[in-house]
């Protein structure tokens, strides 16, 4: 195993792949560096002297400025490194030559829905229109577990605190997200559970749902019946019978839509896990499939890489708006745009938002950007898409699902047990985490600095995703975890 890695030949820092003791001498690419202080795993060590105010370079890009003079062998982190980023910027479209070579197709065993969509799970979803009926939804989920047999794989309730006392975009977001969830192909049947007096009541929500299969989507307004639990169970039994009529069949991998997200990063996330997902994305796209990248605030500082891979100038301008709209959202709430908010990120070796973002965007691979999506907007274009959503793990992963992702790939250097509405694959950036939290982690990308190449891991991950799409449960599913979170921005009445 390597001791340190210099990601790009232009870098003036290297990343420790293990804890480095004071006084150790490191040799890499003809450079010999004696470490002057302890360097934690995932953190940066200076490869040459850097004067105060000069650039710190990692991934071949600036990740900030030195706050003070830094000597060769010193630890480089938040104590001596600061962001170089400002507020709103002016961008110029400089298209890069981004392309992915088409490869032979692959197949998974999925469920074909009546609207032509492909699902990777055959579940019944109970979707409350308002938080007031959350407890009823959870009680129904518990009671309806007895219906799970044959090809019906699960009954899941998705409680949330919204649907009433909301205004403006928040109310629109709730209605859009619920409508998208109702149409998701992983759900063989859906019970929409309303109260009756909420803002986003069933008649209002139907305007957002549009056309639907009346056998697949059923509605119950609790104030309209004497015993809501009994009435709902009768509907769930009918939905279960309908769902059991679906069986897995071969479906081309070009119909897969995979969301990509990271959280709780460490210094290895941008070296192992995120590049593995990026290579996976290129591989799926080469077979005609689709990937979606989100968490806009963690594109700040690396956004021009994505902008210049936009296939058209129109997409470039949409990406500019994607970035600037989020910056304006921060400033409208009197918040600093370029603060890295996570203590876990810093503990893991991430020093600035540029540092985080350059690692984060590794998940996009090298494919051209084919689509830019608003929050809650369904994906339309095959290939790489960018989605407007915040960095929050649950909110962003839910956003990926409601835009059409059947599976979410979630890279982490710290570990997390959460789930999303769809199978959420946890990919560790280091082997220590994979060993310690085997009940959370599904795939170990930390092997890239041990005995595997990026290409080998990407192919392994692709094969694993096909297995998940064909019915293999991820760790969060085995634990019975299913989460949903809606993006809230404004006033609650």
What is the domain tally?
3
Q: Output mean pLDDT.
A: 94
Tell me the β content.
15-25%
Distance between the termini: 57 Å
Characteristic key phrases:
single chain, four-stranded antiparallel β-sheet, Archaeosine Trna-guanine Transglycosylase, Chain: A, domain 4, seven-stranded parallel β-sheet, 23 strands, 13 helices, alpha/beta, Ribose 5-phosphate Isomerase B, Chain: A, 28% helix, 493 residues
Could you characterize what this model shows?
With 493 residues, the protein is of the alpha/beta class. The protein folds into 3 domains: 79 residues, Archaeosine Trna-guanine Transglycosylase, Chain: A, domain 4 (Roll); 125 residues, Sugar-phosphate isomerase, RpiB/LacA/LacB (Ribose 5-phosphate Isomerase B, Chain: A), CATH 3.40.1400.10; 226 residues. It is built from 13 helices and 23 strands. The strands form 6 sheets. The chain has a 7-stranded parallel sheet, sandwiched between helices. Strand 12, helix 1 and strand 13 form a beta-alpha-beta unit. Helix 1 crosses helix 4. The longest helix is centred in the middle third of the chain and has 20 residues. It is globular. The chain starts with a strand and ends in a 15-residue tail after the last helix.
């Amino acid at each position: 195993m390597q001791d340190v890695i210099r990601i790009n030949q232009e870098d003036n820092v290297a990343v420790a792949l293990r804890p480095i003791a004071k006084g150790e001498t490191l040799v890499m690419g003809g450079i010999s560096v004696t470490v002057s202080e302890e360097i934690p795993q995932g953190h940066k060590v200076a490869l040459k002297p850097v004067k105060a105010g000069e650039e710190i370079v990692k991934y071949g890009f600036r990740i900030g400025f030195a706050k003070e003079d830094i000597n060769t062998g010193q630890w480089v982190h938040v104590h001596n490194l600061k962001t170089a980023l400002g507020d709103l910027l002016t961008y110029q479209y400089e298209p890069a030559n981004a392309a992915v070579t088409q490869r032979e197709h692959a197949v998974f065993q999925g469920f074909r829905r009546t609207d032509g969509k492909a699902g990777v799970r055959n579940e019944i979803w109970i979707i409350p229109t308002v938080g007031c009926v959350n407890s009823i939804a959870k009680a129904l989920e518990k009671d309806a577990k007895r219906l799970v047999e044959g090809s019906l794989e699960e009954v899941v309730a998705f409680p949330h605190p919204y649907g009433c006392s909301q205004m403006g975009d928040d109310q629109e977001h709730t209605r859009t997200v619920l409508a998208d969830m109702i149409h998701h192909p992983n759900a063989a049947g859906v019970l929409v559970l309303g109260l009756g007096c909420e803002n986003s009541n069933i008649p209002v929500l139907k305007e957002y749902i549009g056309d639907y299969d009346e056998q697949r989507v059923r509605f119950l307004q609790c104030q309209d019946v004497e015993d809501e639990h009994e009435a709902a169970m009768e509907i769930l039994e009918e939905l279960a019978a309908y769902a059991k009529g679906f069986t897995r069949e071969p479906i081309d991998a070009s119909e897969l839509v995979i969301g990509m997200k990271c959280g709780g990063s460490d210094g290895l996330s941008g070296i192992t896990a995120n590049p593995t997902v990026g290579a996976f994305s290129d591989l799926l796209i080469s077979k005609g499939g689709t990937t979606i990248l989100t968490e806009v605030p963690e594109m700040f500082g690396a956004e021009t890489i994505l902008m210049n891979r936009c296939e058209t100038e129109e997409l470039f301008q949409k990406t500019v708006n994607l970035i600037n709209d989020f910056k304006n959202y921060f400033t409208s709430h009197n918040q600093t745009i370029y603060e890295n908010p996570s203590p876990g990120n810093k503990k893991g070796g991430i020093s600035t938002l540029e540092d985080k973002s350059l690692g984060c965007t590794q998940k996009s691979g090298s494919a051209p950007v084919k689509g830019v999506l608003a929050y809650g907007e369904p994906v339309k274009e095959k290939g790489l898409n960018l989605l407007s959503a915040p960095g929050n793990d649950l909110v962003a992963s839910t956003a990926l699902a409601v835009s059409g992702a059947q599976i979410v790939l979630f890279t982490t250097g710290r570990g997390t047990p959460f789930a999303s509405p769809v199978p959420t694959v946890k990919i560790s950036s280091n082997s220590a985490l994979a060993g310690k939290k085997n009940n959370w982690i599904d795939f170990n990308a930390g092997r890239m600095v041990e005995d595997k190449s990026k290409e080998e891991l990407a192919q392994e991950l692709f094969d694993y995703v096909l297995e998940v799409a064909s019915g293999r449960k991820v760790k969060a599913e085995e634990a019975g975890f299913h989460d949903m979170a809606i993006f809230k921005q404004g006033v609650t009445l």
